[in-house]
Each structure stands twice: as structure tokens, then as C-alpha cells.
Amino acid sequence: MNCLECGASDNLCQTRFDEFLVLEFTDAGYGAVHHLTVATYMLQHSSKLTREGWMYERDLLRQFLVEKKPPALIRKQIKDTVDSGKRTFKIKSKDGKPVINKTMWRKTILDVRSENAGVYCEDITAWARSVLEEAETIAI
Ligand SMILES: [Zn+2]
């Protein structure tokens, strides 16, 4: 069966995501795009997020890709917001219901090659850009 959220065949997206996280945590060359991998995967799997969480992840991806803010700066902003109690919404969903009804995407995590860190970073970025572009058209 294909994934009901990103459309990946045989539901392989979750397995691939877990494998990629291991790669990213064990090899800094792969870890360079960790911030993109997580935000992009979450946007495509909105059942893991609240409505506010989904918009928040989309905004994060936009800050990385369009505004080109460095991940370290964004991490600091997130930390400051959380520490100061300014973020009043929950990001992770408990009910498991998708907050968007999109099930077909131009690219999924299965389009990412991982034979070396160079192609990996290139493909993660291309996947992230493609997903952001499609996500920006969704009214939520
Ligand atoms: Zn999926």
C-alpha cells in the first residue's frame, strides 16, 4: 500500500526517514541537512502535527530555504521562544488525523539518494524545495 500522506510506495517513507536520521546523527556530512529532513518529512506527514504545528514547520522551512537563515540562528530563536513561554500552541498532534488533505506530491523521501553526503545534501534540499513550493499553495 502507498503512504496515505506522501504517496510513497509500500509505505517505505517511515523506514527511509528512520534510516536517514541514523545517517545524519552518525555522519556530520549527512547531518548538515538534518533541519531540512525533519521539517520536510513532517510537512508531508501532517497527521503527526497540529494545525498550528504544520504552519510552524512550513514557516521554518521557508526561513531555511527562502530567507536562508542559518540553522543555528533558527534553533536559538526556537529555544528563546520556548524558554520565554511565548509559544502557546502544541506542535505534535495526538489524534493522528492529517491536517491537510494532500496525498500526492511531486517528490517524496524515496527520491533522495544517499550513496554519499554530497548527493544526499543535494537531494534533501531539492525535496525540501519541492515540498515547500507545494505546501505554500495549501490554504489551511
Ligand atoms: Zn509517507
Task: Explain this structure.
The chain is mostly helical and 140 residues long. Helices cover 55% and strands 0% of the residues. It contains six helices and no strands. It has helices spanning 12-26, 28-31, 34-44, 51-65, 71-83, 117-135. Helix 3 runs antiparallel to helix 4, helix 3 runs parallel beside helix 6 (117-135) and helix 4 packs across helix 6 (117-135). Bound molecules: zinc ion. Zinc ion (ZN) binds at residues 3, 5-6, 8, 13, 45.
Keyword list:
globular; 6 helices; 0% strand; 140 residues; mainly alpha; binds zinc ion
What is the compact description of this entry?
With 140 residues, this protein is an all-alpha fold. 55% of the residues lie in helices and 0% in strands.
Summarize the helix and strand pattern as letters: HHHHHH
Label the overall shape.
globular
Number of strands: 0
Give the averaged pLDDT, no decimals. Answer: 95
In what range is the share of β-strand residues?
under 5%
How does the major sheet shape up? none
Tally of helical runs:
6
Structural class: mainly alpha
